[in-house]
Write a structure and sequence with these properties.
With 354 residues, the chain is mainly alpha-helical. It is 80% helix and 1% strand. It has 16 helices and 2 strands. The chain has a two-stranded antiparallel sheet with strand order 1-2. Strand 1 and strand 2 form a beta hairpin. The longest helix is centred in the middle third of the chain and has 30 residues. The chain is globular, with a radius of gyration of 20 Å.
Length: 354
Amino acid sequence: MCRSQTYNLRRNTSLNKEGGKLGIFEKYLAAWVAMCMLLGLFLSQYFPALSTAINSLQISGISIPIGICLFLMMYPAILNLQLKELRKLMHNPKPIVLTLISNWVWAPLVTAFLAYMFLANHDQLIVSLILLGSSPCTAMVLVWGVLADGNQEQNIINTSLNTITIMFLYAPIVSLLTGVQNIQIDRVALLLSVFVFIGIPLVFGYISKKYVISRKGEIWFCDIYRPAVGKIAVLALLTTLVVLFSLNGNVLIQHPEEMVLVSIPLLLGFGIVVGFNLFVTRFAGLRYREAIISVIIGSSSHFEIAIAVAISLYGLGSQAALGTTMGLFWEVPIMLSLVYLGKRLHRKGFWKND
C-alpha cells in the first residue's frame, strides 16, 4: 500500500465518522448516472445526428471515442493494484477466501440462474447480467470500504487479487455460463475484450506507475496523480452513459419495459448475494471490519469491464450495453445502503465483537 495511502484512508474514515463527508462524485453518483441517462434520451430525440456521428468514428467495428472512454474508465482501477500487499494473504486468509468464493462461484451462479429465469428469449440481456455477475469490483469498493470503516489493508489485498484473477477467470466463466443454455457469443471477441480492456490497462498502469513514482515520488503519485486520473475516469464513465442512452433512446422510449425487465433479476440478485455474504461472514466468526469488506467486495461488480465487453460484443446501441448500464444504475444506491446496513448490524452485535 502507498505510504500515504494508509494515512489518507484513515483520514477519510475519520471524516466519515464525523460527518459522512464524501467527494461530490461519490455522494451524488446515483444522481449523476440518472442525469446522464436523461441527457442521452434527450439527445436521441432532438439531436440524433450527434450520437450517430460519434458512433461512426470506428476502426474494425470499434468506436474510437468510446474505446478511449472505456480505457480511461479501466486505467484508474489498475492503479489500485498493490502486488506487495498480496504477500500478506496468509496472515488472515479466511475473509479473503470467503470473498473469492462469492466473487467467482456464488455471485456468477446466482446471477446466471436469475437471468435465465426472468429473461428467457432475451439473450443479450441474459449475457449482460452474466457479464456483471462474473466481474468482481476493483475500484469503487475502495470508497465503500472507507465509508464502512472496514479493514483497508484487506480491501487493498482483495482488490489487487481481483485485478489479477479477472484476467484469467472472467472469459472462461462467462463462456461457461452462457454455454449452459447454448447462448451464442463471439468467444474470440470476448477474449480480445479482456486483453484490450484489462490486459493493456494493466501493463500500461504498471509501467506508468513505476515511471511516475520514480520521477515524482510515491506520495505525489498517491495524493495527486491517482486522484486526478480518477476524475478523468468519472468524466469518461459519464460520457459513455450519455452516448449509450442517446443511441438506445428510441428503443427505450418505445419499450421502457426492457429497463424494468432487466432490473428485476438485478435487484433480486443483489439481495440474495448480499444476504448470503452477511450470514456467511457471521457464521465464519469474522469481526466487523473484516466482515464488511468481504460483504462489500463479494456483492459488487466491476461494471466498467462489463459495459466495455458488452459494447465490444454487441455494439453501443445493443440491449446488452443497456443491461450492463442498468447494473451500474442500481449498484450505487445498493452499495451505499449496504454501508449503512453494515454499521447498523455492527451496533446490534451481528458480527463477532472487535
